[in-house]
Amino acid sequence: MAFRTHSAADVAKYFLASVDPDENDISNLKLQKLCYYAQGLLTVMRRTPLFGERVVAWDHGPVVADLYHKYKDNKNQPIPVVTDFDVTVFDKRDRDALDDVLKYYGQSLHGACET
C-alpha cells in the first residue's frame, strides 16, 4: 500500500481540528511535540515519513521550524481550534494513529472527528 506524504502544516491542522474546543490546551510547544510523536510513530508504521519537513532539536524539544514560525504569535497560549479542515485528507489508518497520538500525548478528541 502506498502512503501519501503530507505536510507538517496539515498534521498540525489535523490535531487542531480534532481537539475538543472546550478543553483545548494545545500551545505551539505542545503542537510541536504532537507532530514529532506522530512523525515517529507513523514513519515506523508506514515505513515512510508522514511529512517531509525536517524535525530539528531546539532547547525546549523537537521543532518543525515552519510550524513554529506559523504559530509563534500564540506564545504559550492555546492555538485556536481549526474548524475548516477536512480530516479525510488522511486515510483511515493514519487518522487512527494520529488520534492515538492525540489521546496519549494531548487530550480527548472532539466528537466530530472520531471516525
Descriptive overview:
The protein has one domain. The protein has a two-stranded antiparallel ribbon with strand order 1-2. The protein is mainly α. Helix content is 45%, strand content 5%.
Quick structural overview:
With 115 residues, this protein is mainly alpha-helical. Helices cover 45% and strands 5% of the residues.
Question: Which key features would you list for this structure?
Answer:
single chain; 115 residues; mainly alpha; disordered C terminus
Strand order, largest beta sheet: 1-2
Q: Give the N-to-C terminal Cα separation.
A: 21 Å
Series of H and E elements: HHEEHH
Q: Structural class, from helix and strand content?
A: mainly alpha
How many strands in all? 2
Parts with pLDDT < 50 across at least 5 consecutive residues = 111-115
- How many separate structural domains? 1
Helices and strands, with pairings:
Elements: H1 8-18, H2 28-46, E1 56-58, E2 61-63, H3 65-71, H4 92-106
Antiparallel strand pairs: 1-2
Helix pairs in contact: 1-2, 2-4
